Amino acid sequence: MSHRSIYRSVVREVHKASIKAPSSRNKDIAASFREIFDGRDKASDPKAFDYDLQNTITFMRSQRMYKELLDRYNPLFDLTAEERIEATARRVGLNMPVTVTPDSGKE
């Protein structure tokens, strides 16, 4: 792969992994990537640099796919314990009873 296509792959994966709009992203991250690619000419081993970047792209793509699969097949993953219990009860057709706290002021 050429350096240009590797750079584009890295930028594409960063774009897909980001949850913010491009205008609100941290500009230092993009500047750091540009600096890394500009410094590639000074690298002692260009093949090692390309290999490391391919590993970086593979890692970023794998992390994104892992999160997508986790969200798809485990929708209760990011819920709190109480929300998870309520969602599980709803799944089998039950509703959780309303819990009464001792500090509610009703006697």
TrEMBL record:
It holds the Pfam family Complex1_LYR_2. One of its GO terms (biological process) is mitochondrial proton-transporting ATP synthase complex assembly. InterPro entries: Fmc1. This is Uncharacterized protein. It comes from Serpula lacrymans var. lacrymans (strain S7.3). One of its GO terms (cellular component) is mitochondrial matrix. PANTHER family: ATP SYNTHASE ASSEMBLY FACTOR FMC1, MITOCHONDRIAL (PTHR28015).
